[in-house]
Design goal:
Strand content: 15-25%
Shape: globular
CATH topology of the largest domain: TIM Barrel
CATH superfamily of the largest domain: Aldolase class I
CATH architecture of the largest domain: Alpha-Beta Barrel
CATH class of the largest domain: Alpha Beta
Number of helices: 8
Largest sheet: 8 strands, mixed
Bound molecules: iron/sulfur cluster
Strand order of the largest sheet: 8-9-11-12-13-14-15-16
Structural class: alpha/beta
Helix content: 10-25%
């Protein structure tokens, strides 16, 4: 366990966690909603510090990040816990249950990152990384002190307060942030969280690092062209080049309804493309996932599931010389 960074003492030995917008007030011996921050004798501790539940070398496309070192592989780690309660969670064994973990210090993780061949860095993923804050903060600082070119990636629900986010962003190169719906009522009902803090995280992160956004499209919840149009329009006001991934829902955890129809995803992609230059469909076989120059339509990255073939050598279209928002 490691003493947490963002909290304040309250009356009668309670503590208030200041890491995420839930602001849990935790009595002595109690845990926060995320299950990995505990009040020990009137101080807040991060109980998942250095505890790793899952580790693998993944294609960067799996995060998904399509415009950040496409075609590369990245060591990926995760632990347990989450500060949301999504009833459709596609990774609920890690987020909502207790699975075995192993100790992996920041120093040892740095060793692994540098020892694995053809690896661009580290992705904190699988469960919600922002509640693993202290471990990621310590590891990312070690990484950047050793070699600023080692990539640090977060795959996150974006539910964090502005102050801790600002503390971490200087050490982060790219984020994929879930934007689960553009409706605050749906956020509260399905995830137990609020929309506005997630929007604030996207705004702040997009100003500091590479950002892509993922929306899991769930039938009868967030699958209307009106909602996805509003979401895409809001993203476009930040930057029309933010890639949006419309990911196909499959039944998981407490949701048993049928997967999202392909026709729905294609219609929503068309709607989002009215606002954004790059909209991709995920989790759907036999759909074009290529990246095209928004100026002349030339294909610049070919993708098949998690395999990417980059057809340019620099972030510029070979056809019309337009600059492309790619980190190669
Ligand atoms: S990080 Fe965990 S303990 Fe802290 S406010 Fe959020 S849910 Fe509560």
């Amino acid at each position: 366990m490691k003493k947490a960074l963002y909290w304040e003492a309250k009356e009668e030995g309670k503590v208030k966690c200041l890491l995420c917008p839930h602001g849990c007030v935790i009595p002595p011996g109690g845990k926060g909603l995320c299950r990995v921050r505990e009040n020990v004798n009137g101080a807040l501790y991060a109980t998942s510090y250095s505890r790793v539940a899952s580790i693998a070398l993944d294609p960067i496309e799996k995060k998904p990040l399509y415009h950040f070192h496409p075609g590369s592989a990245i060591l990926s780690v995760g632990t347990v816990g989450c500060n949301m309660r999504c009833q459709f969670c596609q990774n609920y064994t890690l987020s909502q249950t207790d699975v075995p973990t192993e100790y992996l210090s920041p120093e040892r993780l740095l060793d692994l990152i540098t020892q694995v061949e053809d690896n661009i860095g580290i992705a904190f993923t699988y469960n919600e990384p922002l509640i693993w804050y202290e471990y990621i903060y310590d590891t990312a600082r070690l990484i950047k002190a050793k070699d600023p070119n080692i990539a640090v990636v977060l795959v996150s629900n974006g539910y964090i307060n502005p102050e801790p986010l600002a503390g971490l962003l200087p050490y982060v190169d790219a984020m994929n942030i879930d934007l689960k719906t553009f409706n605050d009522d749906t956020y509260r009902r399905l995830s137990g969280a609020r929309l506005e803090p997630v929007l604030e995280t996207i705004r702040r992160a997009a100003a500091k690092c590479h950002v892509e956004v993922t929306t899991l499209v769930i039938p009868e919840e967030n699958d209307t062209p009106e909602e996805i149009g509003k979401l895409a329009s809001w993203l476009a006001a930040i930057n029309t080049n933010i890639p949006l991934h419309l990911s196909r829902y499959h039944p998981a955890y407490k949701f048993s309804r049928l997967p999202t129809p392909a026709t729905t995803l294609l219609a929503l992609q068309k709607e989002a493309c009215r606002h954004l230059n790059y909209v991709y469909i995920g989790n759907l076989p036999r759909v074009d996932q290529g990246t095209y120059c928004p100026e002349c339509g030339r294909k610049v990255i070919d993708r098949d599931y998690y395999e990417a073939k980059v057809l340019v050598t620099r972030p510029e279209c070979p056809g019309c010389a337009a600059s492309l928002p790619l980190i190669l």
